[in-house]
Every structure is written in C-alpha cells, then in structure tokens.
Amino acid sequence: MLLALAGIIPLFAQSLSISVLGDSYSTYEGYVTPDTNEMWYYAKHSKNTDVSDVTQTWWWQVAKDGGFRLCRNNSYSGSTIGYYGYDGNDYSVRSFLTRMDNLGDPDIIFIFGATNDSWAGEQVGEYKYENWTKADFYTFRPAMAYMLHHMQRRYPNVKIYFILNTELRQDITESCKAICQHYGVKCIALHDIDKMSGHPSVKGMKSIANQVLDAIKN
Question: Could you give the CA distance from residue 60 to residue 28 in angstroms, rounded to a whole number?
C-alpha cells in the first residue's frame, strides 16, 4: 500500500520511488530512458540555458529534497500528449500516449506535459471520457483524458500528479485542470517560472521543484 504522503516524512519517503513522464523541460543527457529520446538539456554548455548539471533539474531536486528514489525518467524533447505535432506532423511516436507504459514500477508519477500541445497549435477538441478512437488522439482533450484513464489502470496504487506549465494557451490550461479534476488527479499549476528560450533556467528549475514539493506535502 502506498504510504501517506502528507508531510513527506523523510524516513518513510526514502522507500518511495518516483518516475517522470515529460517533454524537454524534464530531459537531461544521460538520465533519460530510453536514451534515444531527444534532449534539450545537456551536460555541455549551451547558450540556450544556464542549466549545466543534473542536480539543477527540477526532478532531481524533488527526489533529493523529498527523500525519494528516481525510478525512471521517460522525457522526450518536443513531445506532445496527443498525436498532433509541429507543422501538423504526426507525433505519435514521441507522444506521451506512446511512452506512458514505460515508466518502470514507481510509487509516484509526475506527468509534466501539454507545453508542446499548446505551442504546436493542437486543437483542443471535445471533452471525451470513453470510447476513444485513434483519430481522437489528434486533439488535446481526448488524448489527455485517455492518458489519465489508462495510467490510473496501468499503475494501480500509484499516486499520479500532473504538473501544469505557465504561459500556455488558456484553452489548454483550462482543459488540463478540468480533466485532472474529472479523474481525481492533482494538478500542480505552476506560477512565476523563470525561463530562457522558453525553458526553465536554473532559477526556474528551483522554483518548479519547490512548488512541486509544497504541493505534494499539502
């Protein structure tokens, strides 16, 4: 049985493991499974970011400061939850739906997505909570709903959190909150995240980690 998270008592939290299902915000070279996923954050210096060490990533800090073990990080730069990608391309290969079964055997899962769905111009579609078809997954709301529906069944007794980025389209933001509420998944709506090239800086990563830890403690 999953141990209660309230207060996150480090003694107990040490026995809990976390997995991450994400996009570029959660990548870091050498720490993503499978290692064929595209990265945004690399160990080498990049002018696009000041993040240069894995210990600066939000998920590493959540694991370290919360006393958790990292089970698996399956993050893919540029990935969308649904199948609709940039320039109307089919992103089904990298989508969250395709990768959501490859998260190991964690106690807690953090889903950090919807950013590329927003940026790529994916249509939100209609709220749909059953009888999905492949065609439905090219719009956001059915894809998001199916993801949570499937993951709650794929990972019984695993606590699932959805992390919601700042500065997304209003219809995407509202859809994430509504669908999370429908499935009883806690939506951690971030605020005041410092970014470089649209991605969290060192300061932004720290803020994400702090907000996530505060949310799961409460």
Answer: 10
Pairing of strands 199-200, 195-196: antiparallel
How far apart are the C-alpha atoms of 187 and 180, rounded to whole Å? 6
* Averaged pLDDT, groups of 10, the chain, 218 residues long: 48 76 98 97 90 97 97 98 97 98 98 98 98 98 98 98 98 98 98 97 98 94
Phi, psi angles (nearest 5°) of residue 58? -65, -40
Q: Where are any strands of DSSP class E within 23-158?
A: 69-75, 108-113
95 Cβ contact partners less than 8 Å away, ≥ 6 residues apart: 79, 80, 81, 82, 83, 137, 143
pTM: 0.93
CA-CA distance, 126 to 134, in Å (whole number)?
14
Q: Is 157 left (phi over 0), alpha (psi -120 to 50) or beta?
A: left
